[in-house]
Amino acid sequence: MKETKNRCLGALIGLAIGNALGAPFEYIDMEKLPEINDFHSGGIYNLNAGEWTDDVSMALCLAESLIEDGFDFDSQMKKYLKWIDEGLYSCKKTAFGIDNQTMDALIQYEKDASLPKIIDKDSHKPLARLAPIPMYFKNSFNDAVFYSGQSAYTTHNNIYSIHSCKFIGGFIQQAINGATKRVLLEEVHRHMDLIYDVKLKIVDVTYKDINDLINDGKAINSLEIALWTIHNTNSFKDAVLTAVRFGGDTDTLGAIVGQMSGALYGLENIPKVWLLKLAKKDMILELAEKLCNK
C-alpha cells in the first residue's frame, strides 16, 4: 500500500477506533477510570465492545456528503438529519449521544434551512468528526484548512471551535502527505491564519506538564490535550490509550486523537486486533477508500 493511502485510511479508521475505545468510559473522571488497554462494553449507552458513538456517525455522514456532493452545507445538514431521524450511520438502530448544540442546530435547519448563529460556547464536538475533510482535500493544504474551519459552522459556530478545526484539518492533511511529528507539532501552524489563543495552545504544548492541561470539553483545551498526547507518545496505540485515560468526554477525545495519530502513523500501524473488533469496520473502510481515492 502506498504510504499516502495508508495514512489517509488511518485517519478515519483511527477516529473510529479512538472513539470506540473511549465510548464506555464517557463522563468518568480520570482518577475513577479502570485500566484501559482494549475495547470494553457498557457505559451510559450500554455498548458492545468495539461500538462507537455520535462522533463517528457524524464523521461518516460527512464522508458520504463529501463523496456525493463535495463540500456543501445543505448536503451535510441533510445527512446529519437523516442520522437523527433514521439512524443513518449509527452502530445501533437509532441515533444516540447527540449533544445539545448539534440538536439545536439541526432543529433550526429543519425549520428554516439556516445555519446556527455565532455562539459563545466553545465545544470540541466538531473537532471529533473532522477527518473526512482533510482526507477529501488531501492534495490541497489551503483547502483542507479552510473547509475544516467551515465544517464547524453547521453545528458549532464559535471562533475557537472553527480555528481549532482549521489547525487539525491542516495537521491531518500534512500527516497524510508524509510530514513528520516534529513538523506537524512545530511548523504546520505557521502556515495558517489562526487566532492568537489557538496558536498559543499549539506553541506552548511541548512545555506543558499533564497537570497543566484542562479537560473540560472546550475546543482549545481538547486541542491542547491532543497535541500533548501526540508529543508524548510514539505510536497510535499509546496515543489513543493516553487520550481516553484523561477521562471526561472520552469518546470525543479518543476520536480527536485517533484521527490525528491515525493519519500520522497510518492504517498499517493501527493494531490489527482493534480493527477486527471495530463495529461495522467494512462500512467504515469502504467510505475511507472512496474518500482516499477522490
From TrEMBL:
This is ADP-ribosylglycohydrolase. InterPro entries: ADP-ribosylglycohydrolase, Ribosyl_crysJ1, Ribosyl_crysJ1_sf. Binds 2 magnesium ions per subunit. It holds the Pfam family ADP_ribosyl_GH. SUPFAM superfamilies: ADP-ribosylglycohydrolase. It comes from Marinitoga piezophila (strain DSM 14283 / JCM 11233 / KA3). Keywords: Hydrolase, Magnesium, Metal-binding. Mg(2+) binds at T53, D54, D55, D249, D251, T252. The keyword S-adenosyl-L-methionine does not apply. It comes from the Bacteria. One of its GO terms (molecular function) is hydrolase activity.
